[in-house]
C-alpha cells in the first residue's frame, strides 16, 4: 500500500431508498483494489439520518497481490435526506474525515437546490469531479501549489454550476409568476362572466314579468270591455 493518508473514494446516498446517487474515485493503489461489494456494504451502512460514525472494514474480498488484504476505515455523515461516506486507509483521522464530509455536503447543497426526492444518478453526475478533487485534497501528497491550483479550479467549477442552478431556479420562478398572472386573469374573467350572467338573468326575469303584465293588462282590458257592454245592455233594457 502506498504511504501517507489516502482516501480511496466517496459516495452520496439518498436515505429514503438508499439509492447510490454518486460515487467518486479517490487515490488508486497498485497493490490492491476495492471491489464493488465493499462499496455496496458501505452504502448499506448509510441507514439513519443525522448521524456520524467511523469504523473499520476488513477488506477480505479485496483483490490483493500476494499480501494480506488491507484493513480500511470508513466514515459516514448524514443529514435528514442524504448520506456522505468515504473509504480510506487507517491513517485518516476521524476529525479530518468528517471535516471532508462536511465540506462535501456543503458543496453538494450549493450545487443542487432541487428537492432530494427528484435526484437521479444522471442528474448529480456533475458532482463526481468536485467530489474527487475534494477527496484528493484531503489526502496526503502533492505540492502546496498543486493543491492551491486544484482548490481554485474546484471552486470555479462549483461556482459555475451553482450559478447555472440559480439561473434555472430563477427561470422557474418567472414561469411560476406567469402562471400566477394567468390564474389571476382567469379569475377576473370568471368574475366578469358571473356578473354578466347575473345581469342576463335579471334582464330575462324583467322580460318575463313585463310579458306577464302585458298579458294581464290585455286580459283586464277585454274584461272591462265585456263588463262595460254587459252593464250598458242592462241599462238599455231598463229604459
From TrEMBL:
Entry's Gene Ontology cellular component terms: membrane
CDD domains registered for this protein in UniProt: R-SNARE (cd15843)
GO biological process, one term: vesicle-mediated transport
Domain V-SNARE coiled-coil homology: 147-207
Keyword terms of this UniProt record: Coiled coil, Membrane, Protein transport, Transmembrane, Transmembrane helix, Transport
Gene3D superfamilies: 1.20.5.110
Domain T-SNARE coiled-coil homology: 138-200
Transmembrane domains' residue ranges: 213-233
PANTHER family cross-referenced by the UniProt entry: MEMBRANE PROTEIN, PUTATIVE-RELATED, SNARE PROTEINS
Protein name: Vesicle-associated membrane protein, putative
Organism: Trypanosoma brucei gambiense (strain MHOM/CI/86/DAL972)
Amino acid at each position: 500500500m502506498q504511504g501517507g493518508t489516502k482516501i480511496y473514494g466517496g459516495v452520496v446516498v439518498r436515505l429514503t431508498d438508499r439509492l447510490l446517487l454518486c460515487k467518486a474515485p479517490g487515490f488508486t493503489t497498485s497493490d490492491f483494489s476495492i471491489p464493488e461489494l465493499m462499496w455496496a456494504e458501505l452504502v448499506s451502512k448509510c441507514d439513519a439520518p443525522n448521524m456520524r460514525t467511523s469504523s473499520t472494514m476488513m477488506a477480505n474480498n479485496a483483490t490483493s497481490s500476494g499480501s494480506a488484504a488491507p484493513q480500511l476505515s470508513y466514515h459516514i455523515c448524514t443529514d435528514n435526506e442524504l448520506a456522505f461516506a468515504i473509504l480510506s486507509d487507517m491513517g485518516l483521522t476521524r476529525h479530518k474525515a468528517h471535516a471532508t464530509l462536511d465540506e462535501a455536503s456543503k458543496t453538494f447543497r450549493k450545487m443542487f437546490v432541487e428537492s432530494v426526492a427528484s435526484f437521479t444518478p444522471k442528474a448529480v453526475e456533475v458532482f463526481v469531479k468536485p467530489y474527487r478533487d475534494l477527496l484528493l485534497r484531503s489526502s496526503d501528497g502533492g505540492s502546496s501549489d498543486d493543491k492551491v491550483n486544484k482548490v481554485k479550479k474546484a471552486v470555479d467549477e462549483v461556482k459555475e454550476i451553482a450559478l447555472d442552478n440559480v439561473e434555472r431556479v430563477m427561470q422557474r420562478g418567472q414561469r411560476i409568476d406567469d402562471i400566477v398572472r394567468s390564474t389571476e386573469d382567469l379569475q377576473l374573467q370568471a368574475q366578469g362572466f358571473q356578473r354578466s350572467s347575473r345581469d342576463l338573468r335579471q334582464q330575462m326575469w324583467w322580460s318575463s314579468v313585463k310579458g306577464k303584465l302585458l298579458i294581464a293588462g290585455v286580459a283586464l282590458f277585454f274584461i272591462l270591455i265585456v263588463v262595460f257592454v254587459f252593464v250598458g245592455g242592462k241599462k238599455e233594457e231598463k229604459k
